[in-house]
Amino acid sequence: MPNMNQYLKEDFSKNLSIDIGAKHSFKNYQKINDWFEKETKFHQEIGNPGNISHTFTHQIKNQINDKFNQNRNENFTIDDLLVELKTFIETTFKTQGILASNSKEGKWLLKQHKSNTSLTLGSFAYFQNKIKGINNNNTSQRDGEFSAYLFDNNIEPDFESEKEQYNSFYSEIVEQKDEVLKELLIIREENKILNQTIKKQNTDWENTFNSQKTEVAKKFDDEYTRHKSKMTESEDFYEKKLAVKNAVTYWSKKAKSHQKNSFIFGGIAGLLMIITVFTVFMLGKYIIGLDLTDKTGDGRKILTETGALQLWVYGFFIISMTIVLWFIRILVKVFLSNLHLLSDAKERETMIQTYLAFEREEKTLKDTDRDLILPSIFRVSANGFIKDDSSSNTPISIITKKFTE
């Protein structure tokens, strides 16, 4: 048969929550153990009235330990155990009249015990009977005990005399009550008249406020309509102005882009030409210094016996130079195209700014002038590439043409 002793070390599937005049929640058995120690310490702090510590230990603590080690049926789960523990703790606290340390009564009892220990037992018995649900309605016994206490302290009790004094005091209170009630009725009528006056004033103020509100609303609507018309005119003006200004910004950025590209492609073309000239120079210097007497050396592979270059060297040199010059030619074309587009963008930017300057002056431009200026500004943009000239064909072009005929 299974038991729940594994949960003496493991956490519960959910917290065990109890309400014993103070609410507690435990996630594992260790937390319950800590609570045991706290309650036992509380019982000792209040002087262990009625040997409550012994009751708590045997009726609560030991019983809970046994429930974890008790054999259960196969279908019994930890959730069932938590329900059983909750019911057991709450019921035992009530039937045994055990006072919780965190309850308001427990906190008050501890405070009183520290100031006056002689009252602890009586207070504890009162709270214990309250928890158990026992009411002591024996008024005669309580009065008799109090009368004996007075006699024991040399005070002669006289309940009849006290009763007459109480009745006299009660009659005075009733008379005063009638007078106060009469005054309250008068005050009520005065408040009623005052409330009517205030209500009438509120109605007058509300009517005045509504009329003023209507008048102000009308003025506001009129001003809103007038300003809306002006704002519409201003928006139309600035939309046109910003539209042209955007065109200026566009051509300004485009000019900077073409200027940057012209620097890049021009620099690459110039650097490549310098490298080509330097390479040809170094190659010629290398060929001049070759030794023809060494039959196995590089000189006899590149040069003939008479010192002329081999045919394959001529072919390799011509093809290599053609490729390099063709690539340099492309870079130069892109460089010149960017220069052309840079000039065009600067020209358009200047023309648009000049047009805006004329537009700021009223009656400066006529419709015929706009017909001449605007087509120049908004003409179709060229791509900037320079067409091929009628220069002689390269060797590769000649060879390609021969093979395609």
Task: Offer a concise description of the structure.
The protein is mainly alpha-helical and 405 residues long.
Which key features would you list for this structure?
405 residues, mainly alpha, two-stranded antiparallel ribbon, 2 strands, elongated
Give a verbal description of the structure.
This protein is mainly α and 405 residues long. It has two domains: 5-136; 237-404. It has eleven helices and two strands; from the N terminus they run ββααααααααααα. It has helices at 29-45, 52-69, 78-96, 104-115, 120-132, 139-152, 159-288, 298-302, 311-360, 367-377, 395-404, and strands spanning 11-19, 23-28. A two-stranded antiparallel ribbon has the order 1-2. A hairpin with a 3-residue loop joins strand 1 (11-19) and strand 2. Helix 2 packs antiparallel against helix 3 and helix 7 (159-288) crosses helix 9 (311-360). The two termini are 104 Å apart.
